[in-house]
Each structure stands twice: as structure tokens, then as C-alpha cells.
Design goal:
Keywords: ATP-binding, Glycoprotein, Kinase, Membrane, Nucleotide-binding, Receptor, Repeat, Signal, Transferase, Transmembrane, Transmembrane helix
Membrane topology: Single-pass type I membrane protein
Structural class: alpha+beta
Distance between the termini: 133 Å
Largest sheet: 5 strands, antiparallel
Shape: elongated
Strand order of the largest sheet: 10-11-12-14-13
Mean pLDDT: 81
GO biological process, one term: cell surface receptor protein tyrosine kinase signaling pathway
Order of helices and strands: EEEEEHEHEEEHHEEEHEEEHHEEEEEHEH
Helix content: 25-40%
Strand content: 25-35%
Number of helices: 9
Protein name: receptor protein-tyrosine kinase
InterPro entries: FN3_dom, FN3_sf, Ig-like_fold, Kinase-like_dom_sf, Prot_kinase_dom, Protein_kinase_ATP_BS, RTK, Ser-Thr/Tyr_kinase_cat_dom
Number of strands: 21
């Protein structure tokens, strides 16, 4: 400030020789030091990143430089394991920043791979008004080619070691849980064939001990035949099981080939567990005979039951209600659906092979021609006799059985029920 005694519009005269200065500091404006539009992009050279931002328009004081901080999002302990030092704040002068067209170059190799918070702060004079705000973005430093390849190899080595450990655990577990051979276990020499096979020894090689029935616990009534067919006989008897005596039916074969068929049927039946399938208790054998022990069904076969009904004008509904007929169809369908879900083709579904218990519940039996398949169909390669009246037409051309073949046979069974046990196509 100077004082003048003769001021004029054009000039001042008679003024003081020494002006009096005074310093005035304006109030700080919040946010005036904050940079804007912070960005980062890949540089033209490998491992180079370009950071750019817009300077503050009206900072709180003279702008001297910028403080760049790369703050890792991982712990300091992780950094110590990488061999890198935690990045220190970097000061970039305004002159260097403007000389590079408002950009700053960073080398990725100065930082280990990971995520960082990149922040920019301004440095002004006086510093009292510096750094009251800043802008930051997330930066990812990716692993280089050699480092990535090394990491991939390490991961695969770890996975391979874990796989070997898992394999060892599985082998040990299977070895521990494998059923032990019964005491006195005897194997049959296949080259020694000077006489008829000893069936009691043969089944020991096929079935586990829980499914082998002692002949002393099995009492058969030789004079009471429940059924007879190409496979042999079905005899009535009793079985001593868990301190109780229960009625059973035992399938008996006469020829050696038929005995092998009964063994195959027993292997299949012992895997099944469905209310509407006849239950197999196990298999018994003497030196010359094989017995498949099953539930005894008091009501006999469905076909005999239907033929025993007294009909009026050959009308099935004169002897059975609609609900009873529908229940028969539903129970048979339930058993067949269980077999289909387990990929088993029955191949001989008919009313004669559906048995009735004392509560008039139906259970499917006779699995002698059933086959467990791993594919969608089973192709017959033998000369077995099949029930033509219950077979689907396509079997006569391609000799293949599928679950759909059983669906056709199920339709014939429904016809048998409505026809009171009549023979199809007769």
C-alpha cells in the first residue's frame, strides 16, 4: 500500500517512496486440491503402464507436485515372502508431469503380482493445505509368462500329489473293507472235471456267506409242488430264520444247465429290494442240487386267480371292482418301474409270473430270463424259448430286448386282467 498526495486520472504524484506490504491468506476450499479423471492404461512397451489425471483447477496454494502411492491390498507378511519391498510414496514434480503431457510412466516389474490401490495426492505451497483429498483406483499387476508357467507347474505337481494320496486312501479303504473269505474256504480246480460238479462248493465261490442258507435250516415238502416248468420245480417248504420258522417257496432244477440258470437268477434277485417284487432269502445247495429260496405267495399266480373268478356274462367287473383292477395294474407297474430304473429287462412278464399274497398284493416273480444291461438294449444270443404271445413285434426282427419290450408285455398283462386270465390272441 502506498500513499499519494496529488492523484490524477493518469498518474499519481507525491507518493510515498516505500510501500507497506501485507500478506493475506484466503480460507482453504475443501476439495480444491483433488485431481480428476484418474486413469491407467497399457503402455507401448512391455511391462509399462501409463497413469494420467487432470490437475486441480484452483488448488489451495501453488501446485508443486504430486504424490503417487501404490498401496498393496495384501498383508505385509505376504510381501516379505515375495522378496519385494513395500512400495514407498513417489513424488512427481509438476514440471515432469507436464513435460510428459500430463502422464506418468510405471514399470510393472517394480511390483510383484497382485492388486493395488493407486492414489494421487497433490503437494502445494504452503503445505498446510495439502492432501486434504485424493482419488484412487484399483490396479492389477499380472504374473509374467515365466512366473505364470512356474506357478502352473507347481499347481499341477500339487494336484498330482493329492491324486496319488487319494488313490492310496481308496486302495487302503477297499483292502480294509473287503469281505474276508470264510474259514475253510475251498476253491474248485477248473481242470479237475472227472465227475459231476459239487454245487455246495460252487456257490461258495459265487455268493457271500450272508446269502448262503444251510440245508439244515431248510425243510422241503417233496409232495407239495407249487409249480412246474422248463426250469424244473417249485416246492413248498419252511425256513428257520432268526429263531423263527417262515413258509417259503424253493425253486429246484434237475439239469446242470438249469442249475446254472437258477444261480444267475439268484444273483439278480438278491440285488433287488422292492415291495412288489418277490423277495429272495438266499440260495442253498447240496452236493447234487441247488435251491433258490423265496417268499411263499399264498394266492398263487395272477392268471389262476383270474380264471377262478365266477363271472357274469364274462364281465370281469362282475367279480372285481374298478379300484381292485386298477390296484393290480399299479402294483405291477411299480415293480416294473423299479426294474427299469435299475436297467433290468424282465423278458417274461405275464400274468402267470405275477403272484398274489394273503392280502391280495401282487409281486412279480420268475426272473430266470431277466438280464441286467449296461446299455439301452439286450440282444439275445442264445436259443432260449421265449413267450411269443407276450413279446413285442420288433423282437421278431432284431432280437433285441429293452425296457420298452417290458412295457409291451405289461400291456398284454393288463389285457389278461380285463379278460379274466384268457390266453392272448387265442
Amino acid at each position: 500500500v502506498i500513499a499519494c498526495h496529488a492523484p490524477t486520472p493518469n498518474r499519481n504524484v507525491l507518493c510515498s517512496l516505500h510501500p507497506i506490504p501485507i500478506e493475506v491468506i484466503t480460507r482453504m476450499k475443501h476439495g480444491a486440491n483433488q485431481v480428476r479423471n484418474l486413469e491407467i492404461r497399457e503402455g507401448d512397451e512391455e511391462d509399462l503402464k501409463i497413469v494420467s489425471w487432470e490437475p486441480p483447477r484452483q488448488p489451495n496454494g501453488k501446485l508443486l507436485g504430486y504424490i503417487i502411492n501404490m498401496h498393496p491390498k495384501t498383508s505385509h507378511a505376504h510381501w516379505a515372502s515375495t522378496g519385494f519391498q513395500v512400495p514407498q510414496p513417489l513424488c512427481v514434480s509438476v514440471q515432469d508431469f507436464e513435460a510428459k503431457n500430463n502422464t506418468h510412466e510405471m514399470n510393472e516389474r517394480d511390483f510383484p503380482p497382485g492388486l493395488y490401490d493407486l492414489s494421487i495426492k497433490t503437494y502445494t505451497n504452503p503445505p498446510t493445505y495439502t492432501n486434504e483429498s485424493n482419488e484412487n483406483i484399483l490396479v492389477e499387476i499380472k504374473m509374467k509368462g515365466v512366473e505364470a508357467a512356474t506357478l502352473d507347474i507347481s499347481i499341477w505337481i500339487i494336484v498330482f500329489i493329492l491324486f496319488l494320496l487319494l488313490l492310496v486312501v481308496i486302495v487302503v479303504f477297499l483292502h480294509k473293507t473287503r469281505p474276508k473269505k470264510p474259514e475253510g474256504f475251498v476253491t474248485v480246480n477248473p481242470r479237475y472235471d472227472t465227475g459231476p460238479p459239487t454245487w455246495s462248493l460252487k456257490i461258495l465261490n459265487i455268493f457271500s456267506r450272508e446269502y448262503i442258507i444251510d440245508m439244515q435250516d431248510l425243510k422241503l415238502d417233496e409232495g407239495c409242488e407249487l409249480g412246474k416248468g422248463n426250469f424244473g420245480l417249485v416246492l413248498k417248504g419252511t425256513l428257520s430264520l432268526n429263531s423263527a420258522t417262515i413258509p417259503i417257496a424253493a425253486k429246484v432244477a434237475t439239469e446242470n444247465q438249469e442249475k446254472d440258470d437258477i444261480i444267475q437268477e439268484a444273483k439278480l434277485m438278491l440285488k433287488l429290494d422292492c415291495y412288489h417284487l418277490v423277495k429272495a432269502y438266499g440260495i442253498a445247495a447240496s452236493p447234487t442240487q441247488v435251491y433258490l429260496v423265496m417268499d411263499f405267495m399264498v394266492g398263487g399266480s395272477l392268471s389262476k386267480f383270474l380264471r377262478s373268478l365266477r363271472l357274469v356274462d364274462n364281465d370281469i367287473f362282475s367279480a372285481l371292482t374298478l379300484d381292485q383292477i386298477c390296484a393290480m395294474g399299479v402294483q405291477i407297474a411299480d415293480g416294473m418301474a423299479y426294474m427299469a430304473c435299475n436297467r433290468i429287462v424282465h423278458r417274461d412278464l405275464a400274468a402267470r409270473n405275477c403272484l398274489i399274497d394273503d392280502q391280495r398284493n401282487i409281486k412279480i416273480s420268475d426272473f430266470g430270463m431277466s438280464r441286467l444291461t449296461d446299455s439301452d438294449y439286450y440282444q439275445n444270443c442264445t436259443t432260449k424259448c421265449f413267450p411269443v404271445r407276450w413279446l413285442p413285434p420288433e423282437y421278431l426282427t432284431n432280437y433285441r430286448f429293452t425296457c420298452k419290450s417290458d412295457v409291451w408285455s405289461y400291456g398284454i398283462v393288463l389285457w389278461e386282467i380285463l379278460a379274466a386270465g384268457a390266453t392272448p390272441y387265442k
